[in-house]
């Protein structure tokens, strides 16, 4: 950065107050994981052009606040993927061959050759939860050991998995089949606690679990219980729900291997993170194209198109949720006034929404096409001048699922609204928490849903009911609630007679 002509002030170990004082007048800020950049810091850095996170995760940067202030946020998403994949393999081998336990015994003077008998990896089934870039690298390397590969990832197409030599299956089937299970998922509202008590109860006896992804995806209390009962034969963890973690019931098990979040801790990964983020900062300050910007402004979007960017992204999230993962071949149609505009940026927003929940890196306008290609997602777009009752309408469709949305209201007071889901006409505002229920068209179904939500202490903020026009009559309810509908309520509704499908849609 200095070679590019910039003044670089290296300040380490700053408190939040010291950070606010230090960044006044700065155009760029480079941080690691320990420094949090929220609204206060962004207000203090009034001249900031770019914030660079030298690493992958962006949990410590308020990207929305930065975007609102026109500050670009960049990261280094490819800096540690090799290191993380190799560490997962190291944990796999350590778990299979009891290496840490044998080492600890030997340096204490105990030659315990017979005690620490291990397992060969050859011929064993490796279950991979998440076939993103790190999961894919683990799969490639596990093939060299002669392992059979199976995976669960609703955001990867069957064709893409087949090319990788991986058999896709449900999560329940995967834990029931795998000898070793390795986790490579982002942590979000859908994945938190995903590997929990109920799922582990269905696991193949003796399964061994590796988590070098994100703490909290694997329920550590449930894992301890499964280890104690013998359902799980061993575990190796690099990440924990709360970090630093220096005390855990898991530490008392001799068949558990733990490391203190070392997945990215290699000299090479650290160098790559520094080099990549420095390159992005130089490009941003020069006004050039920035490949790893996670909130790249929609440059070139017309005034008519820009208001629809958020709507397109939310429709993508909606279609992904309705499809329970990656949709198959997807079509998007822009109708009405939008048909006369360049809508390519809207298609990128749609891709962002579809891929957001299933990506192990932040999805941006820049990387969305690459991620779609990696996962085998094919998206086509078309336009039509006809939009019926709306000035403009965006419709996305994949297989049996579809959703349409529009903007209503004057000027800057426009609101995003869903007007169709799965060919049922409905109209509700997009909200943080949406519940979609498809049911037989018969009396009493609204009461069934309302009673279940009320019993769970949920308030219905808005609701719409629509019908199909075909020979088989079904109805569809779309409800917005004051907070997310819990998993147990979703399962309860799915088990009620007359309810055909329940989907929870989270706008963010």
Helix segment count? 16
User: In order across it, which strands form the biggest sheet?
Assistant: 6-5-4-7-8-9-10
- What is the CA-CA span between the terminal residues? 35 Å
Architecture (CATH level 2) name of the largest domain:
3-Layer(aba) Sandwich
How many strands, which pairing sense, and closed or not: the largest β-sheet? 7 strands, parallel
| CATH top level label of the largest domain | Alpha Beta
Low-confidence stretches: none
Q: Cα-atom Rg, whole angstroms?
A: 25 Å
Shape: globular
Proportion of beta-strand residues: 15-25%
CATH superfamily of the largest domain: NAD(P)-binding Rossmann-like Domain
In the CATH hierarchy, the third-tier topology of the largest domain is known as: Rossmann fold
Overall strand count: 20
Q: Could you estimate the helical fraction of the residues in percent? A: 25-40%
User: How many domains, as an integer?
Assistant: 4
Mean pLDDT over the residues: 90
């Amino acid at each position: 950065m200095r070679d590019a002509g910039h003044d670089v002030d290296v300040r380490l170990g700053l408190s939040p107050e010291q950070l606010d004082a230090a960044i006044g007048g700065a155009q760029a800020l480079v941080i690691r994981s320990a420094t949090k950049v929220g609204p206060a810091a962004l207000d203090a850095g009034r001249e900031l052009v770019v914030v660079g996170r030298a690493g992958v995760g962006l949990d410590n940067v308020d990207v929305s606040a930065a975007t609102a202030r026109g500050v670009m946020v960049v990261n280094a998403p490819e800096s540690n993927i090799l290191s993380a994949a190799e560490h997962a393999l190291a944990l796999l081998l350590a778990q299979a061959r009891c290496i840490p336990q044998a080492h600890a015994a030997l340096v204490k003077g105990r030659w315990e050759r017979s005690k620490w008998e291990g397992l060969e990896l050859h011929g064993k089934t490796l279950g991979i939860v998440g076939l993103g870039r790190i999961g894919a690298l683990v799969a490639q390397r596990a093939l060299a050991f002669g392992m059979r590969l199976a995976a669960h990832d609703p955001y990867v197409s069957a064709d893409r998995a087949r090319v990788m030599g991986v058999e896709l299956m449900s999560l329940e089937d995967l834990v029931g089949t795998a000898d070793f299970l390795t986790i490579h998922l982002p942590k979000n509202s859908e994945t938190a606690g995903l590997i929990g008590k109920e799922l582990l109860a269905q696991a193949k006896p003796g399964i061994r679990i590796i988590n070098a992804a994100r703490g909290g995806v694997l329920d550590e209390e449930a894992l301890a219980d499964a280890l104690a009962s013998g359902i799980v034969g061993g575990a190796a963890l690099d990440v924990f729900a709360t970090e630093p973690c220096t005390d855990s019931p898991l530490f008392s098990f001799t068949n558990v291997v733990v490391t203190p979040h070392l997945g990215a801790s290699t000299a090479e990964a650290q160098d790559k993170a520094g080099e990549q983020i420095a390159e992005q900062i130089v490009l941003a300050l020069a006004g050039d194209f920035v490949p790893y910007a996670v909130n790249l402004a929609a440059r070139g979007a017309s005034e008519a198109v820009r208001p629809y960017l958020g709507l397109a992204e939310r429709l993508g999230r909606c279609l992904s949720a309705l499809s329970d993962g990656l949709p198959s071949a997807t079509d998007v149609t822009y109708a009405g006034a939008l048909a006369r505009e360049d809508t390519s940026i809207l298609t990128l927003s749609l891709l962002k929404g579809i891929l957001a929940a299933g990506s192990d890196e932040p999805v941006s306008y820049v990387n969305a096409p690459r991620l779609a290609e990696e996962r085998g997602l094919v998206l086509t777009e078309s336009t039509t001048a006809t939009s019926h009752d709306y000035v403009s309408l965006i419709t996305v469709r994949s297989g049996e699922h579809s959703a349409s949305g529009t903007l209503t209201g004057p000027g800057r007071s426009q609101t995003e609204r869903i007007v169709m889901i799965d060919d049922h006409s409905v109209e509700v505002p997009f909200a943080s928490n949406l519940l979609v229920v498809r049911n037989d068209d018969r009396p009493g179904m609204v009461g069934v849903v309302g009673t279940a939500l009320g019993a769970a202490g949920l308030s219905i903020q808005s609701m719409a009911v629509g019908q199909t026009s075909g020979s088989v009559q079904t109805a569809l309810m779309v409800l917005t609630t004051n907070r997310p509908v819990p998993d147990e309520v979703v399962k309860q509704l799915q088990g009620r007679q007359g309810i055909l499908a329940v989907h929870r849609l989270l706008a963010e």
